[in-house]
Amino acid sequence: MTAATDTAPRLGTEELIELYSSMRLIREFDTRIVELFERKLIRGSAHPYVGMEAIAVGICAALGDADYITSTHRGHGHCLARGLDPERMMAEILGRESGYCRGKGGSMHITAMEHGMLGADAIVGGSHGLSVGAAYGARLLGRESVVACFFGDGAANEGSFHEACNLAAVLDAPVIFVCENNQWALSTPTHSSMRIEDVADRAISYGFPGVAVDGNDVLAVKAVADEAVARARRGEGPTLIEAKSYRMTPHSAFATGETSTAAELEEWKARDPLGRLAEQLVAREVDAAVLERIDAAVAERIDGAVQGAIDAPPPPPEQAIEDVFAPAAWLRPGRLA
Amino acid sequence: MSEQREITMAEALNEALHEEMAADGSVFMIGEDIGRTGGLFNVSAGLLDRFGAQRVIDSPISEAAISGAGVGASLVGCRPVVELQHFDFVTLAMDQIVNHAAKWRYMSGGRVHVPLVVRGPIANGVGLAAQHSQSLEAWFVHTPGLVVLMPSTPADAKGLLKSAIRDDNPVVMLEKRLLYTRPGPIPEGDHTVPIGVADVKREGGDVTVVATAYGVGMALQAARGLSERGIELEVIDPRSLKPLDLDAILRSLEKTGRLVVLSEGPRTGGFAGEVIARVSDEAFDLLKAPPQRVAALDTPIPYAAKLERAVLPDLNDLLDAIGKVTGEAVRSGS
């Protein structure tokens, strides 16, 4: 196993432990999600973030409270890295009234404005323009906010990506495009979907920096994110970060067909972002027992989240017609058309 | 009543934008060629000089990105107005309008709202052919979560746009290009028109004609001709297609019992059919004759003038429909 490069000596051991806890929380949460789907407690599907935890945690560690993120169908990791409550997330994913979206969004649409979480978007490539607008709009209103827009390698092939990158460039919008290259679409490998090695190379055609980074190295991700955030706050516009990683689970809880080879999976498991950070912590003379205690506490927290969600009531059917429209002078209860 | 000022619909929309941008610093406009030129139809004239390039953005030709940017900006507290240079280009922005603007509030369980306006012209009737002439209002009426507006007069255009900008919901406003240059009276002051309230443009006791945008003028023209022959049309302009003021239509039908709906979109799956279905659901007993749709043929809009006229509904089509619900031939000279 290759230990991650400790390029951030300014980060104290306590901060590293926080990053570890956050990554462990995501790993545990999404591992449990697959089990719950198999137990038929989750409808539709769910897309585990297992193996990619360092990206969300590294990027979000560079953001402040007034910043925003947008997310994808594979979005639980982004939510947890942004500080959302696992129990309310679990309640949403189990379709409970106490969930973040009152059971209307499910796994793919968790939104929490109080955490700067503008929403998860299950249209691949759907949130690029939205992120540019949020970044531009916040600046227009006099705020210093930056928007981190998470998307996958597949979304980099959507036309919306090109339009949004170009618009962000001409507006100098404070947005960070975070491409999570996990090597695979549902069954199509990234290398057969593009003829370039690095998605980051595309940035040059829009006139802003593009940087490829080891997405399984949380400190490396945080370092490039720090720079991108600083640049955006200075009013110098967007950055494209390509974080190279790997989803260590099938595409989704529903689409479980294995597409990668066992050798490929083993190769990436050797670069497991959690394992690498654990090695670094041990190198800093953190007792392995400390990490074991964190793992146990995280597991217990997720146990509680799962049980809390299971025990929570589902929304009554009459709520189906609520939340279609925002309050307005013309709106009457039940008026939909 | 004191004599009112008259302005065109384009001027009326322009006044609405000037007034709302002056009143609320969170309102901004983004679109293609809206700043330096004041827009292809002068709807945004003078805004760039007055409010600056930060709030009046001449965008790249990127309908998906600018409409997406509108959604995103609305989520953080802005009230963006996105202009589509021709409404047909909305196809490039549909994902942002249908999958994002319309759904973001619902998917979030009411945790956000999307105070966005997307507006632009329907340029049929002028020879711009199939990709610049479509009346696509039915698509948006069919999408839960959107407000859909279509003005027929300068006063309604101004008042509806002001209400749209102030509303916390995503609004799609479709404007008929041929009406942009047509003058009409405009009230002074902070003139708004409530969303979801129809306007009876002419009272009459024999036939209810529900018409939108350009169709309203056509219906009023038919009404003037038929009045001489003793048939009185009541002309109702919903102004707001969604939410629809069905009560206003039903009140009229209580008097007339006869319904004709005129809409310039293609007949099949169109707004006219929807109005008739709603009336049939709620008040079939009121109808003394089968209600009639007047709409475009189910073809793309052709270029040549005679072909385009053959496809779009005209006065004779409307008179034929009125003849069917009254049981007498009303088309003059035919």
Quick structural summary:
Chain A is built from ten helices and six strands. Chain A has 337 residues and is an alpha/beta fold. By secondary structure, chain B is an alpha/beta fold.
Can you describe this structure?
The complex is a heterodimer of chains A (337) and B (334). Chain A is of the alpha/beta class and 337 residues long. Chain A has a single domain, classed as Thiamin diphosphate (ThDP)-binding fold, Pyr/PP domains (Rossmann fold, 3-Layer(aba) Sandwich). Helix content of chain A is 39%, strand content 10%. In chain A, strands 2-1-3-4-6-5 form a six-stranded parallel beta sheet. In chain A, helix 5 (128-140) runs parallel beside helix 6 (159-171). Chain A starts with 12 loop residues before the first helix and ends in a 26-residue tail after the last helix. With 334 residues, chain B is α/β, with parallel strands linked by helices. Chain B has helices at 9-23, 47-51, 63-75, 94-101, 104-107, 137-141, 154-166, 177-180, 214-227, 246-256, 271-283, 305-311, 315-326; strands at residues 5-8, 27-31, 56-58, 79-83, 117-122, 147-149, 171-176, 183-186, 199-202, 207-211, 233-237, 240-242, 259-266, 292-296. In chain B, the strands form three sheets. Chain B has a seven-stranded mixed beta sheet with strand order 3-2-4-5-7-6-12, sandwiched between helices. A five-stranded mixed beta sheet of chain B has the order 9-11-10-13-14, with helices on both faces. Chain B has a two-stranded antiparallel sheet with strand order 1-8. The model of chain B has no long low-confidence stretch (mean pLDDT 97). The chains are: A alpha/beta (337), B alpha/beta (334). Chains A and B meet through strand 2, helix 5 and helix 6 of A and helix 3, helix 4 and helix 5 of B.
